Amino acid sequence: MGEISQQELQLATRNHGMPLELLREPLTPLGLHYLLVHYDVPAVDEDVWRLAVGGRVAREQTLSLAELQALPAVSLAVTMECAGNGRALLEPRAVSQPWLTEAVGTAEWTGTPLRGVLERAGLAADAVEVLFTGLDRGMEGGVEQSYERALPVAEALRDDVLLAYAIGGRPLAPQHGFPLRLVVPGWYGMTNVKWLGRITVLDEPFAGYQHTRSYRMRQAEDDEGEPVTRMLPRSLMVPPGIPDFLSRERFLEPGTAVLRGRAWSGWAPIESVEVSTDGGRGWAPAELEEPVSPAAWRGWSFAWEASAGRHELCCRASDADGRSQPVDPRWNLGGYANNSVQRVVVNVSASRLGGADR
Fold this sequence. Notes:
The protein is mainly beta. The protein is built from 6 helices and 22 strands. The protein has a 6-stranded mixed β-sheet. A 5-stranded mixed β-sheet has the order 2-1-10-5-6. Strand 17 and strand 18 form a beta hairpin. It starts with 5 loop residues before the first helix and ends in a 5-residue tail after the last helix.
Protein backbone atom coordinates (compact mmCIF):
# COMPACT_ATOMS: atom_id res chain seq x y z
CA MET A 1 0.00 0.00 0.00
CA GLY A 2 2.92 2.36 0.58
CA GLU A 3 3.69 4.81 3.37
CA ILE A 4 0.89 7.02 4.67
CA SER A 5 1.97 10.67 4.57
CA GLN A 6 1.59 13.10 7.47
CA GLN A 7 -0.96 15.01 5.36
CA GLU A 8 -3.07 11.88 4.98
CA LEU A 9 -2.72 11.13 8.69
CA GLN A 10 -4.09 14.60 9.49
CA LEU A 11 -7.12 13.87 7.31
CA ALA A 12 -7.59 10.43 8.84
CA THR A 13 -7.70 11.89 12.38
CA ARG A 14 -10.37 14.43 11.35
CA ASN A 15 -12.60 11.98 9.50
CA HIS A 16 -13.76 8.46 10.29
CA GLY A 17 -15.30 5.39 8.72
CA MET A 18 -17.99 3.01 9.93
CA PRO A 19 -16.58 -0.08 11.72
CA LEU A 20 -17.55 -2.93 9.40
CA GLU A 21 -19.02 -5.01 12.22
CA LEU A 22 -21.79 -2.38 12.30
CA LEU A 23 -23.00 -3.71 8.94
CA ARG A 24 -25.05 -6.01 11.16
CA GLU A 25 -27.36 -3.05 11.84
CA PRO A 26 -29.92 -2.01 9.20
CA LEU A 27 -29.42 1.63 10.26
CA THR A 28 -25.97 2.82 11.28
CA PRO A 29 -25.95 3.94 14.95
CA LEU A 30 -25.60 7.69 15.41
CA GLY A 31 -21.96 8.69 15.70
CA LEU A 32 -20.73 5.69 13.66
CA HIS A 33 -21.90 6.83 10.22
CA TYR A 34 -18.87 7.65 8.07
CA LEU A 35 -17.77 11.27 8.15
CA LEU A 36 -15.77 13.47 5.78
CA VAL A 37 -15.32 17.20 6.42
CA HIS A 38 -13.63 18.97 3.50
CA TYR A 39 -12.60 22.18 5.28
CA ASP A 40 -13.62 23.20 8.84
CA VAL A 41 -16.88 22.61 10.69
CA PRO A 42 -18.41 26.12 10.61
CA ALA A 43 -19.94 27.75 13.67
CA VAL A 44 -23.62 28.40 12.91
CA ASP A 45 -26.09 30.42 14.99
CA GLU A 46 -29.50 28.88 14.35
CA ASP A 47 -31.29 32.10 15.31
CA VAL A 48 -29.65 34.16 12.55
CA TRP A 49 -29.05 31.43 9.96
CA ARG A 50 -31.18 31.64 6.81
CA LEU A 51 -31.33 29.62 3.59
CA ALA A 52 -31.26 31.89 0.53
CA VAL A 53 -32.88 30.65 -2.70
CA GLY A 54 -32.20 32.71 -5.84
CA GLY A 55 -30.80 32.81 -9.34
CA ARG A 56 -33.10 31.87 -12.22
CA VAL A 57 -36.29 31.90 -10.17
CA ALA A 58 -39.46 33.98 -10.24
CA ARG A 59 -39.48 34.64 -6.49
CA GLU A 60 -36.33 34.74 -4.40
CA GLN A 61 -36.74 33.17 -0.97
CA THR A 62 -35.09 33.54 2.43
CA LEU A 63 -36.11 30.75 4.81
CA SER A 64 -35.42 30.21 8.51
CA LEU A 65 -35.02 26.74 9.96
CA ALA A 66 -38.45 27.03 11.60
CA GLU A 67 -40.02 27.92 8.23
CA LEU A 68 -38.38 24.91 6.59
CA GLN A 69 -39.54 22.65 9.42
CA ALA A 70 -43.10 23.90 8.90
CA LEU A 71 -43.10 22.60 5.31
CA PRO A 72 -44.17 19.00 4.49
CA ALA A 73 -41.67 16.61 6.05
CA VAL A 74 -40.31 13.27 4.85
CA SER A 75 -38.14 10.70 6.65
CA LEU A 76 -36.11 8.34 4.48
CA ALA A 77 -33.38 5.77 5.16
CA VAL A 78 -30.52 6.51 2.76
CA THR A 79 -27.23 4.71 2.19
CA MET A 80 -24.42 7.20 1.65
CA GLU A 81 -20.90 6.33 0.52
CA CYS A 82 -17.85 8.54 0.02
CA ALA A 83 -16.61 8.71 -3.58
CA GLY A 84 -13.12 7.97 -2.27
CA ASN A 85 -14.11 4.74 -0.53
CA GLY A 86 -11.43 2.19 -1.47
CA ARG A 87 -8.85 4.83 -2.47
CA ALA A 88 -6.14 3.44 -0.20
CA LEU A 89 -6.38 0.06 -1.95
CA LEU A 90 -5.23 1.52 -5.27
CA GLU A 91 -1.59 1.66 -6.39
CA PRO A 92 -0.23 4.22 -6.89
CA ARG A 93 -2.47 5.87 -4.30
CA ALA A 94 -3.79 9.40 -4.55
CA VAL A 95 -2.66 11.53 -1.59
CA SER A 96 -5.99 12.27 0.06
CA GLN A 97 -8.24 10.82 2.76
CA PRO A 98 -6.91 7.21 2.88
CA TRP A 99 -10.15 5.26 2.93
CA LEU A 100 -10.12 1.46 2.87
CA THR A 101 -13.74 0.22 2.66
CA GLU A 102 -15.42 1.79 5.72
CA ALA A 103 -16.59 5.11 4.22
CA VAL A 104 -20.29 4.27 4.19
CA GLY A 105 -23.35 4.42 6.42
CA THR A 106 -27.12 4.30 6.36
CA ALA A 107 -29.19 6.79 8.33
CA GLU A 108 -32.78 7.95 8.48
CA TRP A 109 -32.77 11.58 7.35
CA THR A 110 -35.72 13.88 7.97
CA GLY A 111 -36.37 17.05 6.00
CA THR A 112 -38.52 18.71 3.42
CA PRO A 113 -38.36 17.75 -0.27
CA LEU A 114 -36.18 20.14 -2.26
CA ARG A 115 -38.74 20.04 -5.05
CA GLY A 116 -41.30 21.92 -2.95
CA VAL A 117 -38.85 24.73 -2.13
CA LEU A 118 -37.85 25.09 -5.79
CA GLU A 119 -41.47 25.12 -6.92
CA ARG A 120 -42.30 27.85 -4.39
CA ALA A 121 -39.50 29.92 -5.87
CA GLY A 122 -40.60 29.19 -9.47
CA LEU A 123 -37.91 27.86 -11.79
CA ALA A 124 -37.25 29.89 -14.93
CA ALA A 125 -37.75 28.13 -18.26
CA ASP A 126 -34.00 28.31 -18.99
CA ALA A 127 -32.96 26.65 -15.69
CA VAL A 128 -30.25 24.05 -16.30
CA GLU A 129 -28.67 23.25 -12.92
CA VAL A 130 -29.21 23.93 -9.24
CA LEU A 131 -26.14 24.99 -7.26
CA PHE A 132 -25.78 24.27 -3.54
CA THR A 133 -23.35 26.36 -1.49
CA GLY A 134 -22.19 25.33 1.97
CA LEU A 135 -20.99 27.62 4.74
CA ASP A 136 -17.65 25.79 4.97
CA ARG A 137 -14.75 27.57 3.24
CA GLY A 138 -11.17 26.59 2.44
CA MET A 139 -8.39 26.33 -0.11
CA GLU A 140 -8.25 23.52 -2.64
CA GLY A 141 -6.19 23.34 -5.80
CA GLY A 142 -4.91 26.82 -4.95
CA VAL A 143 -8.47 28.18 -5.08
CA GLU A 144 -10.22 29.86 -2.13
CA GLN A 145 -13.80 28.67 -2.16
CA SER A 146 -16.95 27.69 -0.39
CA TYR A 147 -17.79 24.04 -0.85
CA GLU A 148 -20.24 23.94 -3.77
CA ARG A 149 -21.85 21.22 -5.85
CA ALA A 150 -24.60 21.35 -8.49
CA LEU A 151 -27.29 18.99 -9.76
CA PRO A 152 -29.08 18.93 -13.10
CA VAL A 153 -32.60 20.30 -12.69
CA ALA A 154 -34.17 16.90 -13.39
CA GLU A 155 -32.20 15.36 -10.50
CA ALA A 156 -32.95 18.25 -8.15
CA LEU A 157 -36.69 17.82 -8.77
CA ARG A 158 -36.74 14.14 -7.76
CA ASP A 159 -39.23 13.51 -4.97
CA ASP A 160 -36.62 11.84 -2.72
CA VAL A 161 -34.05 14.69 -2.69
CA LEU A 162 -34.27 16.29 0.74
CA LEU A 163 -33.26 19.45 2.57
CA ALA A 164 -32.53 17.55 5.78
CA TYR A 165 -32.50 19.02 9.28
CA ALA A 166 -32.54 15.80 11.33
CA ILE A 167 -30.77 12.43 11.46
CA GLY A 168 -32.20 9.51 13.38
CA GLY A 169 -34.96 11.74 14.74
CA ARG A 170 -32.50 14.26 16.20
CA PRO A 171 -31.26 17.66 14.95
CA LEU A 172 -28.19 17.38 12.77
CA ALA A 173 -24.92 17.24 14.69
CA PRO A 174 -22.42 19.99 13.79
CA GLN A 175 -20.22 17.56 11.83
CA HIS A 176 -23.18 16.33 9.79
CA GLY A 177 -24.19 19.77 8.53
CA PHE A 178 -26.23 21.56 11.21
CA PRO A 179 -28.62 23.18 10.70
CA LEU A 180 -29.40 22.01 7.13
CA ARG A 181 -27.86 19.78 4.51
CA LEU A 182 -28.71 18.32 1.13
CA VAL A 183 -29.43 14.58 0.87
CA VAL A 184 -29.41 13.10 -2.65
CA PRO A 185 -30.14 9.36 -2.57
CA GLY A 186 -28.03 7.29 -4.95
CA TRP A 187 -25.24 9.84 -5.47
CA TYR A 188 -21.83 9.65 -3.85
CA GLY A 189 -21.39 11.58 -0.61
CA MET A 190 -19.72 14.68 -2.08
CA THR A 191 -23.10 15.63 -3.60
CA ASN A 192 -24.79 15.89 -0.20
CA VAL A 193 -23.68 19.46 0.63
CA LYS A 194 -23.56 20.19 4.37
CA TRP A 195 -24.11 23.47 6.27
CA LEU A 196 -26.26 24.62 3.38
CA GLY A 197 -26.47 28.39 3.08
CA ARG A 198 -27.59 29.15 -0.46
CA ILE A 199 -29.38 27.52 -3.39
CA THR A 200 -28.84 29.17 -6.78
CA VAL A 201 -30.67 28.15 -9.95
CA LEU A 202 -28.34 28.43 -12.96
CA ASP A 203 -28.97 28.83 -16.69
CA GLU A 204 -25.66 27.13 -17.55
CA PRO A 205 -23.63 24.25 -16.10
CA PHE A 206 -21.68 25.01 -12.92
CA ALA A 207 -17.96 25.42 -13.63
CA GLY A 208 -16.59 25.58 -10.06
CA TYR A 209 -13.62 23.65 -8.72
CA GLN A 210 -15.61 20.77 -7.25
CA HIS A 211 -17.05 20.01 -10.70
CA THR A 212 -14.29 20.83 -13.16
CA ARG A 213 -11.17 19.72 -11.21
CA SER A 214 -12.24 17.55 -8.30
CA TYR A 215 -14.46 14.46 -8.40
CA ARG A 216 -13.66 13.48 -11.96
CA MET A 217 -12.50 10.07 -13.21
CA ARG A 218 -9.27 10.84 -15.06
CA GLN A 219 -6.12 8.92 -15.90
CA ALA A 220 -3.81 11.97 -16.01
CA GLU A 221 -3.82 15.58 -14.80
CA ASP A 222 -4.52 16.97 -18.26
CA ASP A 223 -7.50 14.66 -18.89
CA GLU A 224 -10.93 16.27 -18.73
CA GLY A 225 -12.28 13.03 -17.27
CA GLU A 226 -15.81 11.92 -16.51
CA PRO A 227 -17.70 13.35 -13.51
CA VAL A 228 -18.28 11.17 -10.47
CA THR A 229 -22.03 10.87 -9.92
CA ARG A 230 -23.97 7.83 -8.68
CA MET A 231 -22.68 5.08 -6.43
CA LEU A 232 -21.46 1.98 -8.23
CA PRO A 233 -22.68 -1.38 -6.90
CA ARG A 234 -20.80 -2.60 -3.84
CA SER A 235 -21.20 -5.34 -1.24
CA LEU A 236 -19.43 -5.51 2.11
CA MET A 237 -19.50 -8.30 4.70
CA VAL A 238 -19.41 -8.27 8.46
CA PRO A 239 -15.92 -9.67 9.15
CA PRO A 240 -16.53 -13.09 10.79
CA GLY A 241 -14.89 -14.35 13.97
CA ILE A 242 -12.55 -12.19 16.03
CA PRO A 243 -9.75 -9.87 14.85
CA ASP A 244 -6.04 -9.58 15.38
CA PHE A 245 -5.60 -6.10 16.86
CA LEU A 246 -3.07 -4.78 14.35
CA SER A 247 -3.58 -6.67 11.09
CA ARG A 248 -7.37 -7.14 11.47
CA GLU A 249 -7.03 -10.68 10.15
CA ARG A 250 -9.88 -12.82 11.44
CA PHE A 251 -9.85 -16.00 13.57
CA LEU A 252 -12.73 -18.46 13.50
CA GLU A 253 -13.61 -21.95 14.69
CA PRO A 254 -14.39 -24.69 12.13
CA GLY A 255 -18.04 -25.42 11.36
CA THR A 256 -21.03 -23.60 9.92
CA ALA A 257 -20.57 -19.84 9.91
CA VAL A 258 -23.29 -17.55 8.56
CA LEU A 259 -21.65 -14.72 6.66
CA ARG A 260 -23.70 -11.52 6.53
CA GLY A 261 -23.40 -8.16 4.85
CA ARG A 262 -25.05 -5.31 2.96
CA ALA A 263 -25.10 -4.34 -0.71
CA TRP A 264 -26.16 -1.18 -2.54
CA SER A 265 -26.07 0.65 -5.87
CA GLY A 266 -26.99 4.20 -6.79
CA TRP A 267 -28.04 3.17 -10.30
CA ALA A 268 -30.59 0.40 -9.81
CA PRO A 269 -31.83 -1.99 -7.11
CA ILE A 270 -29.48 -4.76 -6.01
CA GLU A 271 -30.42 -7.95 -7.85
CA SER A 272 -27.84 -10.45 -6.55
CA VAL A 273 -24.88 -10.93 -4.23
CA GLU A 274 -22.31 -13.69 -4.67
CA VAL A 275 -19.78 -14.96 -2.15
CA SER A 276 -16.40 -16.59 -2.72
CA THR A 277 -14.52 -18.47 -0.01
CA ASP A 278 -11.41 -19.11 -2.13
CA GLY A 279 -10.20 -15.65 -3.06
CA GLY A 280 -12.50 -15.12 -6.04
CA ARG A 281 -11.95 -18.33 -8.01
CA GLY A 282 -15.43 -19.74 -7.36
CA TRP A 283 -18.69 -17.95 -6.52
CA ALA A 284 -22.02 -18.98 -4.97
CA PRO A 285 -25.24 -16.97 -4.54
CA ALA A 286 -26.16 -15.40 -1.21
CA GLU A 287 -29.69 -15.01 0.11
CA LEU A 288 -31.08 -11.47 -0.11
CA GLU A 289 -33.22 -9.63 2.42
CA GLU A 290 -35.68 -6.86 1.65
CA PRO A 291 -33.98 -3.43 1.45
CA VAL A 292 -34.27 -1.05 4.39
CA SER A 293 -35.85 1.48 1.99
CA PRO A 294 -35.75 2.12 -1.78
CA ALA A 295 -32.76 4.41 -1.11
CA ALA A 296 -30.89 2.09 1.26
CA TRP A 297 -28.72 -1.01 1.24
CA ARG A 298 -29.97 -4.58 1.09
CA GLY A 299 -28.93 -7.25 3.58
CA TRP A 300 -27.62 -10.65 2.52
CA SER A 301 -26.49 -13.91 4.16
CA PHE A 302 -24.47 -16.97 3.17
CA ALA A 303 -23.91 -20.24 5.08
CA TRP A 304 -20.24 -21.26 4.92
CA GLU A 305 -18.80 -24.57 6.11
CA ALA A 306 -15.53 -23.27 7.47
CA SER A 307 -12.74 -25.85 7.33
CA ALA A 308 -9.35 -25.54 9.00
CA GLY A 309 -6.90 -23.36 7.13
CA ARG A 310 -6.41 -19.83 5.84
CA HIS A 311 -9.22 -18.51 3.62
CA GLU A 312 -9.83 -15.33 1.64
CA LEU A 313 -13.52 -14.42 1.59
CA CYS A 314 -14.96 -12.11 -1.08
CA CYS A 315 -18.39 -10.76 -1.93
CA ARG A 316 -19.69 -8.97 -5.01
CA ALA A 317 -22.99 -7.32 -5.89
CA SER A 318 -24.87 -6.83 -9.16
CA ASP A 319 -27.74 -4.41 -9.78
CA ALA A 320 -30.83 -4.62 -11.96
CA ASP A 321 -29.16 -2.61 -14.74
CA GLY A 322 -26.43 -5.25 -15.13
CA ARG A 323 -23.62 -3.43 -13.29
CA SER A 324 -21.39 -5.71 -11.20
CA GLN A 325 -18.37 -5.22 -8.98
CA PRO A 326 -15.04 -5.96 -10.64
CA VAL A 327 -12.75 -8.50 -8.99
CA ASP A 328 -9.74 -6.22 -9.51
CA PRO A 329 -9.67 -2.45 -8.89
CA ARG A 330 -9.85 0.07 -11.74
CA TRP A 331 -7.31 2.82 -11.19
CA ASN A 332 -7.92 6.54 -11.63
CA LEU A 333 -5.92 9.59 -10.58
CA GLY A 334 -8.19 10.70 -7.73
CA GLY A 335 -8.84 7.21 -6.38
CA TYR A 336 -12.59 7.53 -6.87
CA ALA A 337 -15.32 4.88 -7.08
CA ASN A 338 -13.09 1.86 -6.42
CA ASN A 339 -15.83 -0.73 -6.01
CA SER A 340 -13.65 -3.82 -6.46
CA VAL A 341 -14.62 -6.82 -4.32
CA GLN A 342 -13.88 -6.82 -0.60
CA ARG A 343 -11.31 -9.37 0.59
CA VAL A 344 -11.35 -10.67 4.18
CA VAL A 345 -8.62 -13.06 5.37
CA VAL A 346 -9.93 -15.66 7.85
CA ASN A 347 -7.84 -18.19 9.78
CA VAL A 348 -9.92 -21.20 10.79
CA SER A 349 -8.57 -23.20 13.73
CA ALA A 350 -10.23 -24.66 16.81
CA SER A 351 -7.04 -24.61 18.86
CA ARG A 352 -6.46 -20.85 18.36
CA LEU A 353 -9.86 -19.76 19.69
CA GLY A 354 -10.66 -22.01 22.62
CA GLY A 355 -14.41 -21.82 22.04
CA ALA A 356 -14.82 -18.18 21.01
CA ASP A 357 -18.15 -17.37 19.40
CA ARG A 358 -18.44 -17.42 15.64
